[in-house]
């Protein structure tokens, strides 16, 4: 009898020492998101393995081809000449890349005086979690695999520990999905992407980052070569940094009644840098109205309809503007930048909420990585 009582007491102590041992039950919506993420991860891993295998095969093919060329040489002198010619070819390629880099830097410097001014407003950091800020700036420090494997546990931790974060209260598992997914579910690198795309343009624009302070600045400083970027970095608000040009400020917001038909070199176009816009609908329009500055929205609805989500990322909006500066054609710019999965075939369909105001991490991480690699490798 005493042994049974002792066993019951031990079991009770075990339960008390582990009050939250069971992970929080996910809602159906959260489970669907998790399943979708797991499928995406599996597909990504498979694609990564295929690309790696193809690269290895190509490297092996080139190695064998080179060895065959060397072995086919009739004399040692001919062999040495072949090796030297290869070295010269490599040298020429390196010199060409250096010259291209120099030209790009010169174009960026010239854009500071003659280019179209585009501002990314980073003053919304207090409305975002650190993970969402990380998503906007770079995203990718935490592996997606580790998040997928421990997703339920992380949601439970979020419910237990994440309360008021940046003015937002996490109450449900779906709220925590939003918070957790900001870590690195999608490899976005939005601001880094914007700089990389602008750097490659034949007619680059003059990019600004305003409100660059606090956690936002800390995250930006982690980007490779950020200090060397040819870009304006202001800790002040754009309203203060550009106070002498207030009449030329134009905030791109979905709630504006003004449709942007052309880009004016005298104007300074502002894009709101805010992840999870759905929590703060109309915030950029309200901000612009209170500051007494102009607003406008992109004319996407005049040229195409969206087949899925009606939101664009910061980098997509920036790239659309950059493309229009280059080709002066809105329709071509939209079709060039907006992923096919997000747009339909019919033109001239009225849209709601499609412009620089709302953000969504829907870029293909592999594509974004390819476009950002230039910044990493050439700083």
UniProtKB/TrEMBL annotation:
Reactions the enzyme catalyzes: guanosine(9) in tRNA + S-adenosyl-L-methionine = N(1)-methylguanosine(9) in tRNA + S-adenosyl-L-homocysteine + H(+)
Domain SAM-dependent MTase TRM10-type: 104-345
Assigned EC number: 2.1.1.221
GO cellular component terms, A-Z: nucleus
Entries under InterPro entries matching the protein: MT_TRM10-typ (IPR028564), tRNA_m1G_MeTrfase_euk (IPR007356)
EC top class named in words: transferase
Biased composition (Acidic residues): 355-365
Residue ranges that the Swiss-Prot or TrEMBL entry lists as coiled coil: none
Spans annotated as Disordered: 1-69, 346-379
Bias (Polar residues): 10-27
GO biological process, one term: tRNA N1-guanine methylation
UniProt GO molecular function: tRNA (guanosine(9)-N1)-methyltransferase activity; tRNA binding
Biased composition (Basic and acidic residues): 38-69, 366-379
Protein name: tRNA (guanine(9)-N(1))-methyltransferase
Source organism of the structure: Populus tomentosa (Chinese white poplar)
Origin organism lineage: Eukaryota, Viridiplantae, Streptophyta, Embryophyta, Tracheophyta
């Amino acid at each position: 009898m005493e042994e049974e009582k002792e066993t019951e007491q031990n079991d009770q102590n075990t339960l008390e020492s582990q009050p939250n041992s069971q992970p929080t039950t996910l809602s159906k919506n959260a489970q669907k998101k998790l399943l979708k993420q797991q499928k995406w991860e599996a597909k990504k891993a498979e694609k990564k393995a295929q690309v790696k295998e193809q690269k290895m095969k190509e490297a092996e093919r080139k190695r064998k081809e080179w060895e065959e060329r060397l072995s086919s040489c009739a004399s040692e002198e001919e062999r040495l000449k072949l090796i030297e010619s290869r070295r010269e070819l490599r040298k020429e390629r390196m010199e060409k890349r250096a010259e291209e880099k120099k030209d790009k830097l010169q174009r960026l410097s010239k854009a500071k005086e003659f280019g179209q001014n585009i501002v990314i407003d980073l003053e919304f950091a207090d409305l975002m979690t650190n993970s969402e800020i990380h998503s906007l700036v770079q995203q990718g420090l935490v592996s997606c695999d580790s998040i997928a494997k421990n997703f339920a546990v992380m949601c439970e931790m979020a419910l237990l520990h994440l309360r008021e974060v940046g003015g937002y209260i996490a109450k449900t598992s779906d709220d925590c999905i939003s918070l957790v997914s900001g870590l690195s579910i999608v490899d976005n690198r939005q601001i880094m992407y914007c700089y990389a795309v602008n750097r490659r343009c034949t007619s680059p624009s003059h990019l600004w980052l305003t409100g660059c302070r606090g956690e936002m600045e800390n995250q930006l400083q982690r980007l490779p070569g950020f200090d060397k970027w040819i870009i304006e970095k202001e800790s002040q608000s754009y309203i203060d940094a550009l106070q002498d040009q207030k009449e030329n400020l134009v905030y791109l917001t979905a709630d504006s009644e003004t449709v942007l038909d052309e880009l004016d070199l005298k104007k300074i176009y502002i894009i709101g840098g805010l992840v999870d816009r759905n929590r703060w609908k109309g915030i950029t329009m309200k901000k612009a109205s209170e500051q007494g500055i102009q607003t406008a929205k992109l004319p996407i609805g005049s040229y195409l309809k969206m087949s899925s989500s009606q939101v664009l990322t910061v980098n997509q909006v920036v790239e659309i503007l950059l493309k229009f500066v280059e080709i002066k054609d809105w329709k071509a710019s939209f079709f060039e930048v907006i992923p096919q999965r997000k747009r339909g075939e019919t033109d001239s369909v009225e849209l709601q909420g499609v412009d620089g105001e709302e953000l969504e991490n829907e870029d293909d991480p592999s594509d974004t990585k390819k476009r950002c690699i230039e910044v990493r490798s050439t700083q």
